[in-house]
Amino acid sequence: MSISFFTSTNQFVLNTKRTTYIFDASKDRFLRHLYYGKRISEFQAPEDNDYYNFAPYLATLGDRWSTDIFSQECSFFGSGDFRTDALRLRGADGTSVTDFLYDSYRIFNGRYSLEGLPEARVDETTQTLEVTLVDPITKCRLFLYYTVFEKEDIISRYMVIENRGDAFVKIEKCMSLTLDLDRCDYDMVSLYGSHPHECNYQRVPLHHGTQAITSRRGSTSHQYNPFFAICSHKATEEKGDVYGFNFVYSGCFLNEVEVDQQNHTRVLVGLGSECFSYTLDPGDHFCSPEAVMTYSSSGFGCMSRNFHRFVRTHILPPEALKPHPIVLNTWEACLFNIQEETLLQFADEATKLGFDMLVMDDGWFGARNHDHAGLGDWFVNLKKFPKGLKPFVEEIKAKGIRFGIWIEPEMVNPDSDLYRAHPEWCLHVSGREAKLSRNQLVLDMSNPNVIDYLKESFLKTFEDVPLDYFKWDMNRHLTDVGSAYWSADRQDEVRFRYMKGVYSLLQWFREQYPNAVIETCSGGGGRYDLGMMYYGIQIWTSDNTNPYDRTMIQANAMLAYPATTMSCHVSNPKDSLKSLDYRYKVAVGGMLGYELHILKMNDEIKVEMKKQIQQYRDFEHLMRLGEHYSLVSPVYYPYSAYYYASETRDEFLLTVIEKADCKEGKTKLLKIRQAKSNVIYQDQLTGTKYTGESLRHGISFPLLGERDHAEIVYLKKI
Ligand code: GLA
């Protein structure tokens, strides 16, 4: 049992393999957070808090019992806790004060399902605690959920608000996860960026006041990934306390951290209040998206591996665990200049070189000869494919290669038949000029008629076309968020309903085309999040395929996401074998693909690519399913070193990438601590043998002081 309730103390205890989480329902029906950290078997609840001047209290309870002082499981606006709140409801009387008090609990196997939102998948060990609270005046019930993933050391939090009163209430702020910690000597680690420079690393000490990462862009964004961590000042890859957080959602979010007057830290993860409100009529309920957290007492490496295991086992669809296709993508080679004849030749070459799949990127539909037109018109361009899509795809597949296609369902160009027929179907505010971005507008995915139109178009265009893969793109952020479909009082719901519309269409694709896999993308890593990972096998990590930048982006993305999710392409080797080798060794860190003009490559390059593809197949399972150990972070050093270990520790893939000029001749000792001491390993690429003991002490690695130098060592037990 990972969840227990002790009647003697009124304590709820949630245990995972290496962590414990405790809170109680006090005699006065407040939920008091008590502990989250290393797994423990005994716990002594603290005395009541000290009195603080200005702290509000109920006369009936006495002045030691103020919601502004104690650590809470969920905090409510307006009734005494002045710290940043997790839930704000406005009643029909116009006030926004609530007093939710503990009512009851239930422990059950499995989880509560979030009705159309992505959610962590359960296994036979998953358990959930449901705690019910009631606000006596609005008569709303609040269900707090704690789902425990014992093996992965993950606890997830989400809530359901149900209006059992006889008047409407408006949810004005909704945060799925609250964690109150009784210290503040922490750093905050987060990933910020821009297009196409995602996943830059930031580590700063917490300060008094509120610090936050947020997206108001309608998608999680390149600018702030929803992952973040709070860690002790001295935490390293292998040592120190680290709390990691993430959100299973792909739209606007707010992740807040507040350090308060008591030097305590409050962490909140959720939808926030700026881009969200939601009206609940009597009888209605609202499910929040799910937030997840993990704790590691042994540094960032352990936190990352907890998240990696969790994402692989509980977030990604099952097909993501099978080998991913090694794709040849047309984008950087052809841009919009898609031609049937060229693609057939691409397929011939790709088959010879051992590729699994040819992916036809943008430019195959409507009047899509450039990025000014065509989005929304999901019918094949007959000038480019005179016989239609089906015979073309069949001809490609007859060559012995699978076929994938690019789509961007959420968007419309003003220069499109769709926009001319339905200008009211894009997000806009009546009378205002909606802003363009990449010459496109955003379809109102909160409108069920738009979703129906998209389904009909794709059904028709893809009827009997044997597709194996969709690349689902999204190339701008949301502005002018107004929906012609929803009434004035529900306009603040549109961003959330937009995401639910996107999720419903993604789910429909999965069901309608069960033999095809999905790769998601948003101008690269603009929606690199757990919500999207629920539907697709991988995400196009970044539009940036420069290997130096990619080394950094991939290393930092791995803080929170497993390599299984990272689509990594070799591009533009400029006819240089050395450059090809370097780019390949950077790309093997994730799920390998290529994005280059295969017909323009010389024979030497093609022979080498063929070897690379064969070689990658030998060890790709390590990236897909293995455990990742970072040895040298490119954030701090001009090179990167890491290895993947198989679960049995019989195989390792060690990679070293020099990304800026290192000191020539310098040698670095790289320790493979997971090697088994009584075993002999052999490098499958050079034949060199090592004892496990020597690997644990470290392999000496010469740095050449060259930007384009990278090495991989593939060790296998013999
Ligand atoms: C985005 C994607 C690219 C490519 C183009 C096509 O930028 O990230 O990989 O698909 O769109 O327009």
Structural write-up:
Strand 8 and strand 9 form a beta hairpin. It contains 12 helices and 38 strands. The protein is globular and about 85 Å long. Helix 6 runs parallel beside helix 7, helix 9 packs parallel to helix 10 and helix 10 (577-587) runs parallel beside helix 11 (603-625). The strands form 7 sheets. Strands 6, 7, 8, 9, 11, 12, 14, 15, 19 and 20 form a 10-stranded antiparallel β-sheet that branches. An 8-stranded parallel beta barrel has the order 21-22-23-26-27-28-29-30, surrounded by 5 helices. The longest helix has 23 residues, at 603-625. With 718 residues, the protein is an alpha+beta fold. It folds into 3 domains: 3-315, Beta-galactosidase, Chain A, domain 5 (Distorted Sandwich); 323-408 and 447-475 and 519-540, Aldolase class I (TIM Barrel); 629-717, Golgi alpha-mannosidase II (Immunoglobulin-like). Bound molecules: alpha-D-galactopyranose (GLA). Residues 331, 361-362, 406, 473, 475, 521, 523-524, 540, 543 line the site of alpha-D-galactopyranose.
